[in-house]
Write a structure and sequence with these properties.
Elements lengths: L2 H15 L13 H5 L3 H15 L14 H14 L4
Helix pairs in contact: 1-3, 1-4
Organism: Mucilaginibacter ginsenosidivorax
Protein name: Acyl carrier protein
InterPro entries: ACP-like_sf, PP-bd_ACP
Length: 85
């Protein structure tokens, strides 16, 4: 999967799942603030990632994810490493 495909797919499911406009999602935007995530929302986010990209998410993976760009790079790394469920 190409990086641009990952970005487009990620933005689409995040906008739908968290009911925000795709226009609010930009690489430099803060993931937590933009999606208004609380601790339960992170669980939803993990489930959505795992179901859309077929890899297992570890809680510690989120430590370094601040912006959407960080998130895209994380997903890209996991998908292209073949760490599928």
């Amino acid at each position: 999967m190409q990086f641009l495909e990952i970005i487009e797919k990620t933005n689409a499911f995040l906008a739908e799942e968290f009911e925000i406009g795709v226009a609010k999602i930009s690489p430099e935007a803060i993931l937590k603030d933009t999606l208004e995530l609380d601790s339960l929302d992170y669980i939803d986010l993990v489930v959505v990632i795992e179901s859309n990209f077929n890899f297992k998410v570890q809680p510690e993976d989120f430590v370094g994810i601040i912006t959407f760009q960080d998130f895209y790079e994380y997903v890209n790394t996991k998908v292209n490493a073949g760490e599928l469920v």
